[in-house]
Amino acid sequence: MLNGKRILAVVPARGGSKGIPLKNLQPVLGTPLVALVGRVIAQLPEIDRAVVSTDHEEIARVAEGAGIAAPFRRPEALSGDRIGDVDVLLHALHTMEELDGTAYDIVLMLQPTSPLRHPEQVRACLAMLIEGGWDAVWTVSRTDPKNHPLKQLRLGDAGELDYYDPEAASIIARQQLSPIYHRNGVAYALTRECLAEQRSLKGRRAGALVLDGPHVSIDTLSDLALVEWIATRAEAGGS
Predict the structure, then answer these.
(1) N- or C-end of the chain: fewer Cβ atoms within 10 A?
(2) What is the DSSP letter of 2?
(3) What is the pLDDT of residues 120-155, one digit of tens each?
(4) Are 16 and 57 in contact (CB under 8 A)?
(5) According to DSSP H, which parts of 42-117 are helical?
(6) What distance in Å separates the CA atoms of residue 62 and residue 69, rounded to the nearest whole number?
């Protein structure tokens, strides 16, 4: 509990992943991704309940071994490639409120695929949500100017080259580019009203907690290798 708010942490970890088979069980420095989330949760006593939302028995077993409860299995209808986070979180919220006989004020989503998170970053996300009166707070990272939308190009059917955005024609130097940000998956904190009533991950009024440092959201084997390299350097005391 934080400032009188009951917090439910949900770790979404389905078994089906086409990019990396059983992605949520892939190890970083020998520890499965879903278990790494358990290590972070163990350092956040303000979380009242932490559960994994999965359709896979091995993921459930590993999560439970890391201190994340697995009291239900995600139904098949919520386990496909095109199922949104809102539906998954709503299912977890309603299921746990029924099982626990209580109402949760905040839902905290911690994705296993962003394993470079630190407990203090998650705590800061929760504090910002509560103290700022936001509907939702996402953690984000600043996007490298090389990946700015105004630096992107597109190809026509015949292979002709054009700017993705016509405004890019006026950009001469990167100093002209306004800062932009991308979600890094470290934490999403939402009020119950945002999730259950607005049925939104963002809500009408969302805030961003900008994080420094490397944060890789794993989608590919290359991402996994990069995370392993960063984690190895951090463990060795590198920068």
Answers:
(1) C
(2) B
(3) 999 999 999 999 999 999 999 999 888 898 888 999
(4) no
(5) 57-65, 85-100
(6) 10
3-state secondary structure of 49: strand
66, 151: one domain: no
In the chain, which stretches have pLDDT less than 70? 238-239
Distance CA 133, CA 130 (A): 5
How far is it, in rounded angstroms, from Cα 223 to Cα 76? 28
User: Is 2 within a domain?
Assistant: no
Separation between Cα atoms, residue 118 and residue 41, nearest integer Å: 10
Does the pTM surpass 0.90? The reply is yes
In a domain, 26, yes or no: yes
44 lies in the same domain as 123 = yes
**Count of domains for the chain:** 2
pLDDT, residue 238, reads 57
The set of residues, in sequence order, having a beta carbon less than 8 Å from that of 55 and lying 6+ positions away, is 14, 15, 16, 73, 74, 75, 76, 78, 79
Q: Are residues 154 and 215 in the same domain?
A: no
**Same domain (yes/no): 50, 60:** yes
Rg of the chain, C-alpha, whole Å: 19
Which amino acid would we find at residue 108? L
Half-sphere exposure of 3 (CA within 13 A, CB side): 11
**Is residue 149 a contact partner of residue 164, using CB atoms and an 8 Å limit?**
yes
> Does 135 share its domain with 161?
no
Residue type, 87: D
Element (H, E) at 187: strand 181-191
For residue 168, give its domain range. 144-178
Instruction: Provide the CATH number for the domain around residue 136.
Output: 3.90.550.10
Q: How many residues does the chain have?
A: 239
Verify that 28 and 118 share a domain, yes or no. yes
